[in-house]
UniProtKB/TrEMBL annotation:
GO cellular component: plasma membrane
Membership in a protein family: Belongs to the TVP38/TMEM64 family.
Compartment(s) of residence: Cell membrane
Primary site of residence: membrane
Domain VTT: 88-202
Transmembrane segments: 24-46, 66-85, 97-123, 151-175, 182-204, 224-242
Protein name, entry field: TVP38/TMEM64 family membrane protein
The keyword Manganese is assigned to this record: no
Length: 262
């Protein structure tokens, strides 16, 4: 190939530019969701005593029935990712809340990797034609990167959340990426974000265990919460840092979810 290897990257960068309203849409949805909670009265159920009760029950299940609960988490997570279920990253927070950062993050990582690999393998068969049509506009953008080094390129796509997770799940299947490289790059690339999200859940559990107030101000004043949240912000800024380092415009960051189907 004699073309400038940066040309495909520049095209991809331009393709993922999005207007301001799209960048603010996730925040607007969160705000709308919070408003709906209070308008419908659901906030009455989100109280410290209730959360403490669930916390104790989940802790008992995680401890006493670990060999049932942990595989169930992995299988459920894999299924959500395989069907590109939006918001699957919330499962990572739940995993951390239930099992802690280490085990929860590991369970989410295994589930996300298995689910992504399942849809990758499915896309390589005749069942993948509808998926090819969905990913079609992006395939030319990714082709040069995978041709130059599929292992490292896919690792960067996983680590730097510049593209939707579902797209990175299926595009390699149509570009000749080997399953071994796909599996390795996926597991290593999503690991940092996965454990950060799990630590958010574990931090919330730690606050409950101490019997402290779960008001918003108190949560963000607690190192168990603001530490992981700061890490999430850093992950969200990775696309900007990456594109600036390469000297090209930064794409709009995708949601930082580890296995988000959005």
């Amino acid at each position: 190939m004699t073309d400038d290897p940066r040309s495909a990257d520049a095209d991809a960068d331009a393709a993922v530019q999005s207007p301001l309203w799209r960048r603010l849409l996730p925040l607007a949805l969160v705000a709308a969701g919070l408003a709906a909670v209070f308008v419908t009265g659901l906030d009455a159920y989100i109280r410290l005593d209730t959360l403490k009760t669930y916390r104790a029950d989940l802790a008992d299940v995680a401890h006493d029935r670990f060999w049932l609960a942990f595989p169930t988490l992995v299988v459920l997570y894999a299924a959500l990712v395989a069907v590109s279920f939006p918001g699957a990253s919330l499962m990572t927070i739940f995993a951390g809340f239930m099992f802690g950062t280490g085990l929860g993050g590991l369970g989410a990582l295994i589930g996300a990797t298995l689910g992504a690999t399942a849809i990758f393998l499915a896309a390589r068969t005749s069942l993948g034609e509808p998926l090819r049509q969905r990913a079609g506009p992006w395939l030319d953008r990714f082709q040069r990167g995978f041709a130059e080094g599929e292992l490292s390129y896919l690792f960067v796509l996983r680590l730097v959340p510049a593209f939707p997770f579902w797209l990175v799940n299926i595009a390699p299947a149509f570009l000749g990426v080997r399953p071994r490289n796909y599996l390795i790059s996926t597991a290593l690339g999503i690991a940092p974000g996965t454990f950060v999200y799990a630590s958010v859940g574990a931090g919330a559990g730690a606050v409950i265990d101490r019997g402290e107030d779960l008001k918003l101000g108190g949560l963000f004043a607690d190192p168990a919460i603001w530490g992981p949240m700061a890490a999430l912000v850093a992950l969200a800024l990775l696309p900007v840092a990456w594109k600036r380092w390469r000297g090209s415009p930064a794409p709009a960051p995708a949601p930082v979810g580890t296995a988000d189907g959005d």
